[in-house]
Write a structure and sequence with these properties.
This protein is of the alpha/beta class. The protein has one domain: Undecaprenyl pyrophosphate synthetase (3-Layer(aba) Sandwich), CATH 3.40.1180.10. It is 43% helix and 13% strand. It is built from 9 helices and 6 strands, in the order αβααβαβαβααββαα. Strands 3-4-2-1-5-6 form a 6-stranded parallel beta sheet, sandwiched between helices. Strand 3, helix 5 and strand 4 form a beta-alpha-beta unit. Belongs to the UPP synthase family. Keywords: Cell shape, Cell wall biogenesis/degradation, Magnesium, Metal-binding, Peptidoglycan synthesis, Transferase. GO terms for molecular function: ditrans,polycis-undecaprenyl-diphosphate synthase [(2E,6E)-farnesyl-diphosphate specific] activity; magnesium ion binding.
Length: 253
């Protein structure tokens, strides 16, 4: 769905169909346990598992998780290396279960910077689940919202250079078809754990009209109850999408 298409469908007012989560707080969680940061990342994998199960059971159609930003390369080399190895192990350990439960896995971001070993795991995991039609699980890895928009702009610029597109033909709709997740419903709800109130270069284009829910809960402690709280908060919002009339369930009836 393009960005200017109306997102106000009957289905969406009943609950979020696309939820995105900024999974923050792994390092602080580990520090509170007196352990190294990598232990927090490992504990965070369990929260991912819980969140996927919750999304499936609540009929959410797409779940996008911010796993590794393009800025995370600036972290200590030992932590980055541990994260990469954890990513490989998580793919190996979880993809069969995802496939069994009809979940389609997609990795969004500039994966070209990853090792050939990790790129191969990503390719195999996506290929195994590509025909599943249940929940779409998007993992944002080496992803940045600015990078995403720039890739779209470059694609359109190449088309202009080739003479197949005129600059005046470039529209918001056209650019929206070049960014990640364009084939999915718009992001309805963004959840950020860990107590911070910022978007950290996450899905800058896609969350223009999203609702936001911030919680102090650190990601390893994010559970079904916390997720339910976010959905309950979403249900109380008056979504206007730039207009003046709130869109809610009673309006849709």
């Amino acid at each position: 769905m393009s960005s200017t298409q109306s997102p106000m469908t009957d289905e969406m007012v009943c609950g979020p169909q696309h939820v995105a989560i900024i999974m923050d707080g792994n390092g602080r969680w580990a520090k509170r346990q007196g352990k190294m940061r990598v232990f927090g990342h490992k504990a965070g994998v369990k929260s991912v598992r819980r969140s996927v199960r919750f999304a499936v059971s609540h009929g959410i159609k797409a779940l996008t998780l911010y796993a590794f930003s393009s800025e995370n390369w600036n972290r200590p080399a030992q932590e980055v290396s541990a994260l990469m190895e954890l990513f490989i192990r998580a793919l190996d350990g979880e993809v069969k279960s995802l496939h069994k439960h009809n979940v389609r896995l997609k990795i969004i971001g500039d994966i070209g910077r990853f090792s050939s070993r990790l790129q191969e795991r990503i390719r195999r995991s996506e290929q195994l689940t590509e025909n599943n039609d249940g929940l779409t699980l998007n993992i944002a890895a080496n992803y940045g919202g600015r990078w995403d928009i720039m890739q779209g702009v470059k694609t359109l610029a190449e088309q202009v250079k080739a003479g197949v597109l005129q600059p005046e033909d470039i529209t918001e709709d056209l650019l929206s078809q070049q960014v990640c997740l364009h084939e999915l419903a718009p992001v309805d709800l963004v959840i950020r754990t860990g107590g911070e109130h910022r978007v950290s270069n996450f899905l800058l284009w896609q969350i223009a009209y999203s609702e936001f829910y911030f919680t102090d809960v650190l990601w390893p402690d994010f559970d079904e109850l916390t997720f339910e709280g976010a959905l309950n908060a979403f249900a109380q919002r008056e979504r206007r999408f730039g207009g003046t009339t709130p869109i809610n369930a009673s309006d849709a009836s």
